[in-house]
Amino acid sequence: IKIIIKEKIINKDICNLSKDISYLPMAGEILNQIRKSIYTEEILKSKNISELKSAQENLIFEIKSIKNSILRLKTQKFVNELVEEKIKQIFIDVEIQSESKEINSRKNIKKIGVPYFPIIPIILVLLFGSLAYEISQTSKTNQNSSNKSRLITKSNYLKCKGCDEWTYFQNGNEKVEQKDFLLAIKYYELAIEEFSNKKCLNFSSGELCEKKITFLPAQMNLAYAQNKVGDFSGALKTYKKIYKHEQNGYYLSIIQRLQSKLGYYREAIQTNLKIIEINNNNRKTKDKVVEAFSNIGDLELKLYNYKDACNYWRKSRKVAKSILNNQLVKKISKENINKIRENCGDSKIVKVRKFFLW
Fold this sequence. Notes:
Blueprint (H helix, E strand, L loop, with lengths): L1 H6 L4 H7 L8 H8 L3 H8 L3 H15 L5 H42 L8 H28 L18 H13 L3 H16 L4 E2 L4 E2 L7 H13 L3 H14 L3 H13 L3 H15 L6 H17 L3 H15 L6 H17 L15
Antiparallel strand pairs: 1-2
């Protein structure tokens, strides 16, 4: 993986090297599956994490078309490891660049014509230190008085004097429009913190209630921004918080997808079972049951539980038969037929018998 990242290409030489990897006998086949994809090229050449994550998702989607289930799973795992290593390399490169800048700045100081003795910096500090401090304090005071929403700390912490939760929330929305999702996340976190510290007013008795309120609009936008930067763990935590306050199956569907993406397959199975429990007795939402059973089958396959996977795919098909004129259900059912053929040892799927009148 490190050689591929360094070369930024999967060529014949790298494919030949893959033959020597004893612990991964399918390495050559894996590389052949991804080396011609434009998304592989994006992963290897991009230095932007959000672009990397987007390319990763697109490549994984392409990989799903591989018929051999073992090769498909191995290829997905390889791509995930490749992206993880690439992100690590990006951070290392950033650190190296910052260190080299520091070294260059030191060299530039030495090039100044004044002889460098330890006494000179001490004198400079004594002469100009207090003046610099006064200037900095004056500039801070001016900033605060002219605009309450200006930053008041030296770091990138964005708390501002006089700002409420809606100010932070709007700032976060502006950053999302500018596609600065990292800064948007910080603003949304501040909005949630500011809002949760407030106490709600009980209008019936005029007393203040002690229960902390969750700022749901900021929570939802925070989860969206976390997804955009590839912080799936953060997004999962946020969606779980949202679900506690909004018992909505929509959020459960997102939670199970994130759990699956992060490799929390057992947790994802439990979430899908909860989706089935909620929707099983509702005719209008039976399609969600079909999808959930199918999802559990896919998750059991990832855990190499072929028997359980086949049982859940069959359950999905059984429920699907009771639903008419639903394109999503038809698509899932068709996909499950192929999964059963590939993984369950069934040479033929028994179709609905046709009765002919003579």
